[in-house]
Amino acid sequence: MSLTETMSPGLALGIHQAMVRIRLFESRVEELFKAGELPGFVHTYIGQEAIAAGVCAALNRDDYITSTHRGHGHAIAKGMELGPIMAELYGKATGACRGRGGSMHVADFSVGMLGANGIVAGGLGIAAGAALSARYRGTGQVAVGFFGDGGINKGTFHEALNFAATHRLGVVFVCENNQYAQFTSRLRTTSVEDLSVRAAAYGIPGVTVDGNDPAATYRQTLEAVARAREGVGPTLLNMETYRFGGHYVGDAEVYRASAEVQARREEDPILRWERTLTDEGLMTAGAGDAVWAEAGEEVSAAVSFAEESPYPEGGTALENVFTRVR
Fold first, then answer.
1. Is 313 part of a structural domain of the chain?
2. How many Cβ atoms sit within 10 Å of the Cβ of residue 34?
3. CA dist 241 → 31, 57, 190 (Å)
4. Which pTM value belongs to this model?
5. Whole-number Cα distances in Å, 50 to 2, 17, 88
6. In the prediction, which pLDDT does 186 show?
7. How far apart are CA 117 and CA 157, in angstroms?
């Protein structure tokens, strides 16, 4: 099937741009953290870009997503500006959450990004709640809950799927199956080989997707979103991928062989997508280089914005933290 039969050239190129922006943003974050410029911990999304870019391309701006501790890629793909995300990582007052959230809790309600979450599978109940809210308000919005293969064994996962299935809510549960839950192989923690079969227990569709193919992640999400908008109910998408880096920047990675990592790096989803775009006649080498250059300049501008921004004043510590009761 030709790529142009499943998406427009503009959409295909837009997905490429999103993937490159995520890659360069995360690569710079890794450099900054190693240089001691960023506080806390950071968990990069390098290697998984095809999922965030493909999934979010199938959503409307006002649709919702909930994210994970590895959430920068989701935030960027959903439309958040790089400057506020970077400033949030620095803990600056100009950050997306005014410096209160840091790397694991970026959010921007204006683009439907309801927040990254440091709790494994913690966003799934929030996604179900957002879909329930949309149902009552009659807005037609859907929600996507991102989580990892480690999260598929959490009670929150089962509770959220059961609730969403029972009420036929418009949720798409996207498992970013990168093969490792922190430092432990999925093969040692999970009773089934194909994670999509977990959907059967709740009477909803479960589909396994090549998570390194943006055309596949987009197409399957589009189908799941259509079901959600029609009021048929949720879908579980098991998107198989691989994180190139450790669980966090600085992870010694003693739990996996370097040869395994190198082999998976050779399947880089961005390079794979660029080959597809070239083969389809949608992108030349020069045009591809221009995308990387533009994204690099944007990331550099985001770093400058963050570095030049002030830290929050101590007296404002409780502002933007609690909701005022009226």
1. no
2. 12
3. 23, 18, 16
4. 0.94
5. 18, 11, 24
6. 81
7. 14
